[in-house]
Design a protein that fits this description.
351 residues; alpha+beta; 2 domains; 5 strands; 62% helix; Sfum_1244-like; DUF6866_C; DUF6866_N
């Protein structure tokens, strides 16, 4: 089925470049520059922690933007296989050929409908709750944004390279921040002060499991919410409305699966890291959770935290249904109605 791996890598990378050309510059300038720095580190195979060469990085960034200008209008290319070319969004067809060879491919639309493509080493495959989990190792082709975990074509796709990069970047950020925070407690739990590499290994293993738990929660949430939810999400053009919908479903998934499992397993490091990453709209919607976290720190008892999580599952299910009702009541204005809700009336959704 596969005669030329180099040609496949080049084609996937070309599609990644086209996707970046169309969407990368939609980010804020700060986010764009941070993502580009890490993309350069990946492409040039520069180790974590090594200083990036300023002049070379600047030249590379200018060259990449020039390349984007030349490919932005091109169509995504079919992937070359010996039997027949395959549409780049037909990941299941691609993986039928690649998985036996120790390779894995993922494609799909992410946040704000940005296409994502990645070709990587297959580290392992497993099944949970009837869902296939594909764990990717070394990445041979990827686009600018690297979501560590996602549901793709009914399978959970976990990218260990992206997980490790995320954790390292969090650790670097923390070096310039106050130490006694949820993030600091997570790094202390994993022993970063004794041995950074060993701590990173331990944290990568633990937090990749948390990401799998979240995606399993997403699967359960999707089964409960039904096709109306996906229809709504597919029609949202407002970023504010989409962020609100995704935040509510994230909370539902985590209160059904992620947080109860972490509490049951007494995964303290992961609980600290979860609260450290509860920010923005997700934190604004769920003030009861950080309050319960502070109670745990004070009394060294997770009872209140567990009660908040247990009670919140029904709340987030109701909130998700409220969003669907608001949208489908008048689909022509549904996007605008959810945008208005996201901007001015979060009180009814908060927990």
């Amino acid at each position: 089925m596969l005669e030329n791996l180099s040609a496949l890598i080049d084609t996937v990378q070309k599609n990644c470049t086209i996707a970046d050309a169309r969407h990368a510059r939609d980010m804020t300038i700060c986010t764009f520059l941070l993502e580009m720095r890490e993309y350069y580190r990946w492409e040039m195979e520069i180790p974590y922690g090594a200083r990036l060469p300023k002049d070379e990085l600047g030249d590379w960034l200018n060259a990449r933007e020039s390349l984007w200008d030349t490919v932005e209008e091109e169509e995504f290319a079919p992937l070359p296989f010996s039997a027949a070319d395959i549409d780049p969004f037909e990941a299941n067809d691609v993986n039928r050929a690649l998985l036996p060879l120790g390779l894995v491919y993922s494609s799909g639309l992410g946040r704000f409908r940005k296409p994502h493509f990645v070709l990587a080493e297959l580290r392992r495959s497993e099944m949970r709750e009837g869902v296939q989990i594909l764990v990717a190792g070394c990445e041979y082709a990827r686009d600018l944004i690297a979501p560590p975990a996602a549901m793709r074509d009914g399978a959970i796709f976990l990218r260990m390279d992206a997980v490790r990069r995320l954790l390292w970047n969090k650790y670097e950020e923390w070096q310039w921040q106050e130490k006694d925070t949820a993030l600091g407690r997570a790094f202390t739990y994993y022993g970063f002060e004794r041995n950074v590499e060993r701590g990173l290994d331990r944290m990568e293993e633990a937090e990749s499991e948390v990401m799998i738990l979240h995606e399993i929660g997403e699967v359960r949430a999707e089964r409960l919410l039904g096709e109306d939810w996906n229809t709504m999400l597919g029609h949202l053009s407002s970023k504010h409305a989409e962020l609100l919908a995704r935040a509510v479903r994230d909370h539902l998934a985590d209160c059904m699966v992620t947080l109860p499992t972490l509490l049951e397993r007494e995964a303290l490091g992961s609980l600290h890291f979860y609260l450290a990453n509860l920010s923005g709209l997700r934190r604004a919607l769920f003030p009861a959770l950080p309050q319960a976290y502070e109670d745990w720190l004070t009394h060294h008892d997770t009872t209140k935290l567990a009660k908040v999580v247990s009670a919140a599952e029904e709340h987030w299910m109701n909130a998700a249904q409220q969003l669907m009702t608001t949208f489908h009541r008048d689909a022509a204005k549904g996007d605008a109605n959810l945008t208005l809700l996201a901007g001015s009336d979060l009180a009814s959704l908060k927990r």
